[in-house]
What does this fold into?
Amino acid sequence: MRGRPRRGLVAVLSLAVAIAAALVPATSYAAPASAKAPRTVVLDGARLQDTKRRLDHGDPQLRAELGRLTAAADGWLAQGPWTVVDKPKPAPGGDVHDYLSQAPYWWPSRPRTADNPWGCPYVQKDGQRNPEVDTGTDRPDLGKVFNSVTSLSLAWYYTGKKQYAEHAATILRTWFLDPATRMNPNLDHGQFIPCKYDGRAIGIIDFSQQYSSVLDAIAVLDTGAPGWRASDRSAMLAWNKAFLDWEVDSAFGKQESAAANNHGTFQDLQIAALALATGDRALARRTVLGSGKLRIDPQIAADGSQPQELARTRSWHYSTFDLVAYTRLAAIGNQVGVPLWAYQGPQGQSLFKAVRYLLPAATGAAAWPHPELEFYRYAASDVVHAAADAGDPAAKAAVPRLEAPPGGDLWALRPAAEQLDSIAG
It folds into this structure.
């Protein structure tokens, strides 16, 4: 769908060289005397630098938010690292280094027996999460990797406390780089369904939902974090290049890019983010530029609703979920000269309209008028913040009436939307 020369062999060779380099001891970088602006992908690096400066000058509101961020980071210090090789059984292909997850909304329909140990066939129950998906696969640990390195890297950047950076570096090396514990740069076995599929294209969303945050965490560590070595940076870059090749060239990657709902939006986000992080600005720009006609036109209605997401049993969750991808994609667009917030479809569709459609429920002014198994008003808070920062007056007026998520509103410290009521799948 998007032309791009194959680089598979080159990427594999460079990955091997970089991983070997990662095993050679290297001098750690000291924390910078004055914070550099990180070359982040979604987050605005200059804004992070200014926030750091304001914190250093004692901004009271930011100090309160920093307390919440460091509390989260402190909680991660005693956890991890995690690795894909810890699962009880390898992925169907037999390689323990391959990532494995199970489809969350599929359930056994028959009693488990010696002849039918899974209870097959599995049947779909949309929005109802099967608890067995959190045992025996890599999905729960992956979430911990993503969330921990995001909190730890930002906590180091704002405080300079080396334990945060050192632990983030250990987590990244263990999951992605060390030969004994590393993950292969593919998602061939994401969201498998027992007795049906060994993996599915939609399993890519296990990564695309949050991996752009990891790319930003790496960029933050790259500003001089203790424990994050030059060889780590090179090896991580090689891993990301190989992963991007898989995303673009594999059958699963192509299928996910063709998806018409939030899966397609998140795939655009992941490809654009990986492209920008690995230096392929042309691919990043082309991906964001194409998302107007390819995504916004068919996904967002004239009134701002998202019909495909409204059809789900978790319509509020998925309406906010899709906008997490859009707002992060728009942030990448700001870096490559594509003003996605300004895009308007033939019926007046736009990201601003999509956010405004959520505002009555997001502010508590009205009930959400669509099916939702678990409504959490705060799920929309970050996407409203994003629209407000992009200049929408209605979103700006709504910000004071938003509900903060359980961990507190951290927008000022990490101004990029996260799925605050996240469920996997």
Summary: The longest strand covers residues 106-108.
